Input
Amino acid sequence: MTSPAPSQNSRRKTLEHIAAENNNHPLKRSLTATQLLFMGVGTTVGAGVYVMTGTAAANYAGPSILLSFLIAAAACLFTALCYGELASSFPVSGSAYSYAYISMGEKAAWTVGWLLLLEYGISCTGVASGLSGYLTSLLDTFNLHIPAFLTHSTLQPLPGGDDTVLTYHWQIDLVGLLAVCAVTALLVRGVEESARFNTVVVGLKVGVLLLFLIMGISFVNPANWHPFIPPSEGNFHYGITGIFRAASIMFFAYAGFEAVSTASAEARNPTRDIPIGIIGSLVICTIIYVAVAAVLLG
Output
Protein backbone atom coordinates (compact mmCIF):
# COMPACT_ATOMS: atom_id res chain seq x y z
CA MET A 1 0.00 0.00 0.00
CA THR A 2 1.49 3.31 -1.07
CA SER A 3 1.44 6.35 1.19
CA PRO A 4 -0.55 9.36 0.02
CA ALA A 5 1.33 12.16 -1.71
CA PRO A 6 2.15 15.07 0.55
CA SER A 7 -0.20 18.01 0.33
CA GLN A 8 1.00 21.33 -1.04
CA ASN A 9 0.98 22.81 2.45
CA SER A 10 3.31 20.14 3.88
CA ARG A 11 5.49 19.67 0.79
CA ARG A 12 9.13 20.32 1.58
CA LYS A 13 12.27 20.93 -0.43
CA THR A 14 15.50 19.24 0.44
CA LEU A 15 18.75 21.13 0.89
CA GLU A 16 20.09 19.43 -2.23
CA HIS A 17 17.06 20.59 -4.24
CA ILE A 18 17.46 24.24 -3.21
CA ALA A 19 21.22 24.07 -3.76
CA ALA A 20 20.59 22.71 -7.28
CA GLU A 21 18.18 25.59 -7.96
CA ASN A 22 20.85 28.04 -6.81
CA ASN A 23 23.35 26.40 -9.15
CA ASN A 24 20.96 26.81 -12.07
CA HIS A 25 20.97 30.56 -11.45
CA PRO A 26 24.36 31.02 -9.80
CA LEU A 27 25.21 34.13 -7.83
CA LYS A 28 28.78 35.33 -7.66
CA ARG A 29 30.47 34.26 -4.43
CA SER A 30 32.50 37.38 -3.75
CA LEU A 31 31.62 38.57 -0.24
CA THR A 32 34.20 38.14 2.50
CA ALA A 33 33.57 37.92 6.23
CA THR A 34 34.56 41.59 6.60
CA GLN A 35 32.09 42.69 3.92
CA LEU A 36 29.34 40.63 5.55
CA LEU A 37 30.20 42.24 8.88
CA PHE A 38 29.88 45.68 7.29
CA MET A 39 26.60 44.59 5.72
CA GLY A 40 25.23 43.61 9.13
CA VAL A 41 26.33 46.88 10.74
CA GLY A 42 25.00 48.87 7.79
CA THR A 43 21.54 47.31 7.93
CA THR A 44 21.36 47.60 11.72
CA VAL A 45 22.67 51.09 12.54
CA GLY A 46 19.96 53.46 11.40
CA ALA A 47 17.24 55.80 12.54
CA GLY A 48 16.69 53.90 15.80
CA VAL A 49 19.83 55.06 17.60
CA TYR A 50 19.44 58.65 16.37
CA VAL A 51 15.75 59.13 17.08
CA MET A 52 14.59 56.66 19.72
CA THR A 53 17.37 56.75 22.30
CA GLY A 54 16.50 60.16 23.73
CA THR A 55 12.76 59.56 23.60
CA ALA A 56 12.95 56.17 25.35
CA ALA A 57 15.31 57.53 28.00
CA ALA A 58 13.15 60.60 28.70
CA ASN A 59 9.83 58.76 28.87
CA TYR A 60 10.64 55.32 30.23
CA ALA A 61 14.12 54.39 31.44
CA GLY A 62 16.28 57.44 32.18
CA PRO A 63 20.00 56.57 32.44
CA SER A 64 19.07 52.89 32.75
CA ILE A 65 18.44 52.95 28.99
CA LEU A 66 21.90 51.35 28.95
CA LEU A 67 20.35 48.26 30.51
CA SER A 68 17.50 48.45 28.00
CA PHE A 69 20.00 48.26 25.14
CA LEU A 70 21.66 45.22 26.74
CA ILE A 71 18.31 43.49 27.31
CA ALA A 72 17.28 44.11 23.70
CA ALA A 73 20.68 42.86 22.53
CA ALA A 74 20.32 39.69 24.62
CA ALA A 75 16.93 39.01 23.03
CA CYS A 76 18.43 39.57 19.59
CA LEU A 77 21.37 37.31 20.42
CA PHE A 78 19.12 34.25 20.53
CA THR A 79 17.85 35.13 17.08
CA ALA A 80 21.41 35.75 15.87
CA LEU A 81 22.55 32.35 17.14
CA CYS A 82 19.63 30.65 15.38
CA TYR A 83 20.32 32.45 12.12
CA GLY A 84 24.02 31.66 12.40
CA GLU A 85 23.34 27.97 12.96
CA LEU A 86 20.79 27.76 10.14
CA ALA A 87 22.98 29.71 7.72
CA SER A 88 25.94 27.42 8.37
CA SER A 89 23.76 24.30 8.05
CA PHE A 90 21.84 25.53 4.97
CA PRO A 91 24.27 27.75 3.00
CA VAL A 92 21.74 28.70 0.30
CA SER A 93 19.93 31.87 -0.73
CA GLY A 94 16.49 32.72 0.59
CA SER A 95 17.29 33.13 4.29
CA ALA A 96 14.34 32.26 6.57
CA TYR A 97 12.14 31.41 3.56
CA SER A 98 14.47 28.59 2.52
CA TYR A 99 14.97 27.44 6.11
CA ALA A 100 11.20 27.18 6.61
CA TYR A 101 10.74 25.39 3.26
CA ILE A 102 13.30 22.75 4.23
CA SER A 103 12.13 22.24 7.81
CA MET A 104 8.37 22.95 7.90
CA GLY A 105 7.03 22.89 4.37
CA GLU A 106 5.61 25.13 1.69
CA LYS A 107 2.82 26.77 3.68
CA ALA A 108 5.18 27.84 6.45
CA ALA A 109 7.68 29.10 3.88
CA TRP A 110 4.95 31.11 2.12
CA THR A 111 3.97 32.71 5.44
CA VAL A 112 7.56 33.45 6.44
CA GLY A 113 8.29 34.96 3.03
CA TRP A 114 5.42 37.44 3.30
CA LEU A 115 6.37 38.29 6.90
CA LEU A 116 9.92 39.06 5.75
CA LEU A 117 8.59 41.36 3.04
CA LEU A 118 6.41 43.09 5.62
CA GLU A 119 9.32 43.51 8.05
CA TYR A 120 11.74 44.88 5.48
CA GLY A 121 9.05 47.03 3.88
CA ILE A 122 8.10 48.71 7.15
CA SER A 123 11.68 49.16 8.37
CA CYS A 124 12.91 50.53 5.03
CA THR A 125 9.93 52.88 4.87
CA GLY A 126 10.77 54.23 8.31
CA VAL A 127 14.42 54.76 7.37
CA ALA A 128 13.47 56.45 4.08
CA SER A 129 11.06 58.74 5.91
CA GLY A 130 13.76 59.64 8.44
CA LEU A 131 16.22 60.36 5.63
CA SER A 132 13.63 62.59 3.98
CA GLY A 133 13.12 64.61 7.15
CA TYR A 134 16.83 65.13 7.80
CA LEU A 135 17.63 65.93 4.16
CA THR A 136 14.76 68.40 3.91
CA SER A 137 15.95 70.14 7.08
CA LEU A 138 19.50 70.27 5.71
CA LEU A 139 18.35 71.78 2.41
CA ASP A 140 16.32 74.39 4.28
CA THR A 141 19.54 75.72 5.81
CA PHE A 142 20.69 76.46 2.26
CA ASN A 143 17.34 78.11 1.41
CA LEU A 144 16.33 75.15 -0.75
CA HIS A 145 12.71 74.51 0.21
CA ILE A 146 10.81 71.40 -0.82
CA PRO A 147 6.98 71.63 -0.65
CA ALA A 148 5.53 69.89 2.38
CA PHE A 149 3.23 67.66 0.31
CA LEU A 150 6.35 66.16 -1.33
CA THR A 151 8.10 65.35 1.95
CA HIS A 152 5.29 63.99 4.15
CA SER A 153 4.10 60.40 4.17
CA THR A 154 0.55 59.47 3.20
CA LEU A 155 -0.17 58.28 6.75
CA GLN A 156 0.68 60.70 9.54
CA PRO A 157 0.12 60.53 13.33
CA LEU A 158 -2.25 63.14 14.69
CA PRO A 159 -0.17 66.15 15.81
CA GLY A 160 -0.19 66.50 19.57
CA GLY A 161 -2.31 63.41 19.97
CA ASP A 162 -1.90 59.70 20.32
CA ASP A 163 0.84 58.46 17.99
CA THR A 164 -1.17 55.33 17.27
CA VAL A 165 -3.94 57.38 15.61
CA LEU A 166 -3.09 57.97 11.97
CA THR A 167 -4.55 60.43 9.50
CA TYR A 168 -4.67 59.96 5.75
CA HIS A 169 -3.80 62.67 3.24
CA TRP A 170 -3.16 62.63 -0.49
CA GLN A 171 0.54 63.31 -0.39
CA ILE A 172 3.76 61.48 -1.19
CA ASP A 173 7.21 61.53 0.35
CA LEU A 174 9.07 62.14 -2.90
CA VAL A 175 12.49 62.39 -1.25
CA GLY A 176 12.02 59.05 0.49
CA LEU A 177 10.73 57.46 -2.73
CA LEU A 178 13.74 58.67 -4.71
CA ALA A 179 16.06 57.34 -2.00
CA VAL A 180 14.47 53.88 -2.19
CA CYS A 181 14.69 53.93 -6.01
CA ALA A 182 18.37 54.92 -5.87
CA VAL A 183 19.22 52.08 -3.47
CA THR A 184 17.20 49.63 -5.59
CA ALA A 185 19.12 50.66 -8.73
CA LEU A 186 22.40 50.14 -6.86
CA LEU A 187 21.36 46.66 -5.70
CA VAL A 188 20.38 45.69 -9.24
CA ARG A 189 23.87 46.55 -10.50
CA GLY A 190 25.42 43.75 -8.46
CA VAL A 191 26.55 42.60 -5.06
CA GLU A 192 30.14 43.86 -5.37
CA GLU A 193 29.04 47.41 -6.16
CA SER A 194 26.49 47.28 -3.35
CA ALA A 195 29.09 45.97 -0.89
CA ARG A 196 31.56 48.74 -1.76
CA PHE A 197 28.90 51.44 -1.42
CA ASN A 198 27.68 49.90 1.84
CA THR A 199 31.23 50.02 3.23
CA VAL A 200 31.40 53.75 2.51
CA VAL A 201 27.98 54.36 4.10
CA VAL A 202 28.86 52.30 7.19
CA GLY A 203 32.10 54.25 7.56
CA LEU A 204 30.12 57.49 7.37
CA LYS A 205 27.41 56.41 9.84
CA VAL A 206 29.79 54.93 12.40
CA GLY A 207 32.21 57.82 11.88
CA VAL A 208 29.50 60.33 12.81
CA LEU A 209 28.72 58.38 15.99
CA LEU A 210 32.41 58.11 16.88
CA LEU A 211 32.81 61.85 16.31
CA PHE A 212 29.90 62.42 18.67
CA LEU A 213 31.59 60.21 21.28
CA ILE A 214 34.96 61.92 20.94
CA MET A 215 33.51 65.42 21.14
CA GLY A 216 30.90 64.66 23.79
CA ILE A 217 32.83 62.55 26.28
CA SER A 218 34.67 65.57 27.69
CA PHE A 219 31.33 67.19 28.53
CA VAL A 220 29.94 64.20 30.42
CA ASN A 221 28.77 65.01 33.94
CA PRO A 222 28.44 61.77 35.98
CA ALA A 223 25.78 63.44 38.13
CA ASN A 224 23.42 63.18 35.15
CA TRP A 225 23.53 59.38 35.48
CA HIS A 226 22.00 59.51 38.98
CA PRO A 227 19.70 58.01 39.92
CA PHE A 228 20.66 55.34 37.42
CA ILE A 229 17.22 53.72 37.75
CA PRO A 230 14.72 56.52 38.50
CA PRO A 231 11.89 55.62 40.90
CA SER A 232 8.86 54.17 39.18
CA GLU A 233 6.00 56.58 38.49
CA GLY A 234 3.66 53.87 37.25
CA ASN A 235 2.45 53.10 33.73
CA PHE A 236 5.94 51.97 32.64
CA HIS A 237 7.49 55.34 33.48
CA TYR A 238 10.90 54.59 35.03
CA GLY A 239 11.71 51.81 37.43
CA ILE A 240 12.25 48.19 36.37
CA THR A 241 9.12 48.17 34.21
CA GLY A 242 10.36 51.27 32.41
CA ILE A 243 13.64 49.51 31.58
CA PHE A 244 11.80 46.67 29.86
CA ARG A 245 9.39 49.08 28.17
CA ALA A 246 12.36 50.98 26.75
CA ALA A 247 13.98 47.68 25.72
CA SER A 248 10.91 46.82 23.66
CA ILE A 249 11.28 50.16 21.87
CA MET A 250 15.05 49.92 21.36
CA PHE A 251 14.60 46.44 19.89
CA PHE A 252 13.76 48.29 16.66
CA ALA A 253 17.28 49.74 16.64
CA TYR A 254 18.67 46.21 16.19
CA ALA A 255 16.41 45.22 13.30
CA GLY A 256 18.37 44.29 10.19
CA PHE A 257 21.35 42.21 11.34
CA GLU A 258 19.61 39.02 10.16
CA ALA A 259 19.72 40.36 6.59
CA VAL A 260 23.28 38.99 6.39
CA SER A 261 21.80 35.50 6.01
CA THR A 262 20.24 36.52 2.67
CA ALA A 263 23.77 36.72 1.23
CA SER A 264 24.60 33.05 1.85
CA ALA A 265 24.74 32.32 -1.88
CA GLU A 266 27.09 35.29 -2.41
CA ALA A 267 29.51 34.60 0.44
CA ARG A 268 32.86 33.01 -0.33
CA ASN A 269 32.64 30.69 2.67
CA PRO A 270 29.05 30.88 3.94
CA THR A 271 29.42 28.18 6.59
CA ARG A 272 32.06 30.25 8.39
CA ASP A 273 31.47 33.83 7.25
CA ILE A 274 27.68 34.18 7.66
CA PRO A 275 27.70 33.47 11.45
CA ILE A 276 30.63 35.88 11.81
CA GLY A 277 28.69 38.58 9.97
CA ILE A 278 25.46 38.07 11.93
CA ILE A 279 26.80 37.71 15.47
CA GLY A 280 29.73 40.08 14.95
CA SER A 281 27.52 42.91 13.67
CA LEU A 282 25.17 42.49 16.65
CA VAL A 283 28.09 42.74 19.11
CA ILE A 284 29.55 45.80 17.36
CA CYS A 285 26.18 47.59 17.23
CA THR A 286 25.54 46.87 20.91
CA ILE A 287 28.88 48.42 21.91
CA ILE A 288 28.18 51.48 19.74
CA TYR A 289 24.64 51.92 21.07
CA VAL A 290 25.61 51.65 24.74
CA ALA A 291 28.52 54.06 24.30
CA VAL A 292 26.39 56.62 22.43
CA ALA A 293 23.60 56.40 25.01
CA ALA A 294 26.06 56.81 27.89
CA VAL A 295 27.56 59.98 26.42
CA LEU A 296 24.18 61.32 25.31
CA LEU A 297 22.68 61.02 28.80
CA GLY A 298 25.89 62.13 30.52
Residues 1-5 have pLDDT under 50 and may be disordered.
